């Protein structure tokens, strides 16, 4: 029984976290229910101000926010999140969608834009694309660090016998204060 509890706790801690921001209580409840059923750890707040507090207190993978809210609107929240946590994809939702609004949202840094009422599958697909982007960016950072660690010679990349000889030569002469030009194929 304790093993099952431990596995359940571990699975919950690994759940992807979504912050849902909407001034409509029913929309917040619907989002929490739908996203919870999809396996996401979802927290819902009613304003941009509370969203910024939540972001400072806890890590979130994706933010889903309404565009039109009292106080700061969704675009202002996007701008604030770009300053605070630029790596978090923000998906804007609105019942008043237009091409101009969508273009403006994307220019402001939103990951995507969905119009209300939305289908659960549409929202799920958009959220999954946001997670895919996060995973690609993480993989990209990991690969860059790996290349920097293995190469160690700026932008030189290679593992052939000839390149290993060049690396050895660079190591050997790197302590000299003279300029050296290495040429060859």
What's the gist of this structure?
The protein is an alpha/beta fold and 185 residues long.
Overview of the molecule:
This protein has 185 residues and is of the alpha/beta class. Helix content is 55%, strand content 13%. It is built from 7 helices and 5 strands. The protein has a 5-stranded parallel β-sheet with strand order 2-1-3-4-5, with helices on both faces. β3 (62-66), α4 and β4 form a beta-alpha-beta unit. α3 runs parallel beside α4 (74-84). The longest helix is centred in the last third of the chain and has 32 residues, at 120-151. The protein is elongated. The chain starts with a helix and ends in a 12-residue tail after the last helix.
Ends apart, CA distance between termini: 65 Å
Uncertain stretches: 1-13
Q: What is the element string, with H for helices and E for strands?
A: HEHEHEHEHEHH
**Structural class from helices and strands?**
alpha/beta
Round the mean pLDDT to the nearest integer and report it. Answer: 83
Provide the spatial order of strands within the biggest beta sheet: 2-1-3-4-5
Shape: elongated
Biggest pleated-sheet summary: 5 strands, parallel
In helices, the fraction of residues equals 55-70%
How many β strands by DSSP? 5
Rg over CA atoms: 24 Å
């Amino acid at each position: 029984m304790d093993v099952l509890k431990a596995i359940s706790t571990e699975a919950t801690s690994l759940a992807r976290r979504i912050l849902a921001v909407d001034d409509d209580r029913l929309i917040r409840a619907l989002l929490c229910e739908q996203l919870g059923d999809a396996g996401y750890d979802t927290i819902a707040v009613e304003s941009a101000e509370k969203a910024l507090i939540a972001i400072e207190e806890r890590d979130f993978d994706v933010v889903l926010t309404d565009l039109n809210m009292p106080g700061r609107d969704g675009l202002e929240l996007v701008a604030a999140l770009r300053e605070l946590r630029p790596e978090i994809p923000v998906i804007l939702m609105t019942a008043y969608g237009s091409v101009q609004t969508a273009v403006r949202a994307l220019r402001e840094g939103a990951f995507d834009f969905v119009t209300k009422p939305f289908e659960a599958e549409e929202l799920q697909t958009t959220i999954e694309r946001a997670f895919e982007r996060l995973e690609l960016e993480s993989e990209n950072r990991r690969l860059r660090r790996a290349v920097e660690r293995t190469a160690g010679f700026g932008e030189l990349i290679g593992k052939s016998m000839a390149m290993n000889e060049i690396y050895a030569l660079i190591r050997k002469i790197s302590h000299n204060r003279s300029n050296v030009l290495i040429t060859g194929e």
